[in-house]
Amino acid sequence: MAGLVAAARARELGAQVVVLEKGDRVGGSMLLSSGVVWRHCTLEAFRAECPGGDPELQARILEELDSGLDWLESLGAKVTERETGNERTVGRRFDPSLLTDALVGAGGEVRLQQPFEEADVLATGGFGVRLAREWGLLLRASPWSEGDGLAYGLARGADLTAGMDEFYGRNLPVAVPEELFVSAAQVYGAHALVLDDEGREFFAGEPSWSETDLVQATARLPAATAWYLVDGRALRRQVRARTVAEIVEVARAAGGDVRPAEELPFELPLSSKLVEPPLLAIRVRPAVTHTTGGLRIDEDARVLRPDRSAIPGLHAAGADAGGIFTGGYGSGLAAALVFGRRAAESAVGR
After folding, report:
1. Does a cis peptide bond (omega within 30 degrees of 0) precede residue 286?
2. Which of 87, 131, 303, 339 is the most exposed place for a label (fewest CB within 10 A)?
3. What's the CATH architecture for 2-166+292-348?
């Protein structure tokens, strides 16, 4: 999203633009998302959710996202819902395919299957593919984000942010095709008894509303797998527009390990979360959507050196820019929109 946004905004400002796309299609991971572009309701809430993030960058998202959403609509992007369905957040839902088409139409020339060489705006999607491979995790994103922008920025003398070992992702039952990235996400950890492969609880307390902390904790287990145990009450719980039972059925249909909890190879611990039959166990594995750490940028998306001076002519946006969501979770699409626009404006000199 960040690259297409930057292209569209730069072209709007009169620049000649070429988007070099490593993949064989446009849209990156935006095309595979739910299409919800959102922000926290207040900066205080954003800071509480992502305490390690740069407050100035976070404030920029709070201040500029709404006008950015209006801008997307002005390009012809279709809004499917004007509410996020979450009282903690404000934003709009777009059809990802139509959003991609609108940005491509506004951004001009896109060259597919281009190896990375150099660019004025780095928007290569972070290094989620590499991190998933190195950690033995699943991937829930486009398959091209190996960290090309990160490597180029470092070669130019860029500084890195904190959170280089953090990522946003979801627990999935198995590796699933792209069209199931959203629906197959097992997002009911708050209603489940969560155990490791030895039958031990490994996550202290309740997961956050996004469950990003639970996913990262699962990724740090020796086998990077866990079990979600749910009872009849949990199966009836509503998670967004679906019940837990419906989400579990997606896992079963995708070939996941869904079994009666009594068939697990360890004794079930006593828990108030396992009272009403049936008791089901669902095996989950973490899947990386995008990385959290990355190149350090300023409010104009200029890439910074360790001394905080800007590298001339170099900008970064999207998951190539780190330090916004450190320690928590926020909308990657929102950051891509806000700093994609800022990168274009800074690069063009407006």
Report:
1. no
2. 87
3. 3-Layer(bba) Sandwich (3.50)
